[in-house]
Specification:
By secondary structure, the chain is mainly alpha-helical. It is built from 6 helices and 2 strands, in the order αααααββα. A hairpin with a 5-residue loop joins strand 1 and strand 2 (110-116).
C-alpha cells in the first residue's frame, strides 16, 4: 500500500512510522499471520495518542481487536516465568527411568533433584521447603 506525499503529510509522524513497520512486517510474513507483541504494543501506543479508530484504519487492523487491547489492563513482563506454576509429575513404570527436576527462585537460589528408578521421594515436601522463605 503506497502513500502519496500528500497523505504522508496528513498523518502524524509517529503514526506514519508505525504504519511503515506494519507494512514491512506484512511483506515478510504470510497473510493472516499473527502480529508480534512488539507491533501490537506500538499500535496501542499510537492509538492512545491518536485514537483507536484512526489507528485501526491507518494500520489496517481490526477495530475491535485494537480496542480490546486498549481496554485490557497492562501486563508487566519481568522476563522471568512465575515459579509458582503447577506441574504434574507422573512417574514412569519402568525401573530404569531417570528424571531431573530443576527449580530456581527470583533470588537465584537453585535446587536440582535427580530421580533414578526406585521409590519417588515426597516431591511436594521437597519443593515446598525450597520455596519457603526463611525470615
Amino acid at each position: 500500500m503506497r502513500t502519496t506525499k500528500k497523505e504522508r503529510t496528513k498523518l502524524p509522524k509517529h503514526l506514519y512510522q508505525v504504519r511503515k513497520r506494519f507494512a514491512q512486517w506484512r511483506q515478510t510474513h504470510p497473510p493472516r499471520a499473527r502480529f508480534s507483541e512488539s507491533l501490537w504494543s506500538e499500535a496501542v501506543t499510537v492509538a492512545r495518542e491518536y485514537g483507536h479508530s484512526l489507528t485501526a484504519r491507518v494500520l489496517r487492523l481490526d477495530y475491535y481487536s485494537l480496542k480490546n487491547r486498549l481496554t485490557a489492563p497492562p501486563t508487566i513482563n519481568t522476563g522471568k516465568t512465575r515459579p509458582n506454576s503447577f506441574v504434574e509429575f507422573i512417574p514412569s513404570t519402568t525401573p530404569s527411568s531417570e528424571c531431573i527436576i530443576e527449580m530456581e527462585d527470583d533470588d537465584g537460589g537453585k535446587m536440582r533433584i535427580t530421580l533414578k528408578g526406585g521409590d519417588i521421594p515426597d516431591l511436594a515436601l521437597l519443593s515446598s521447603s525450597f520455596w519457603r522463605k526463611e525470615a
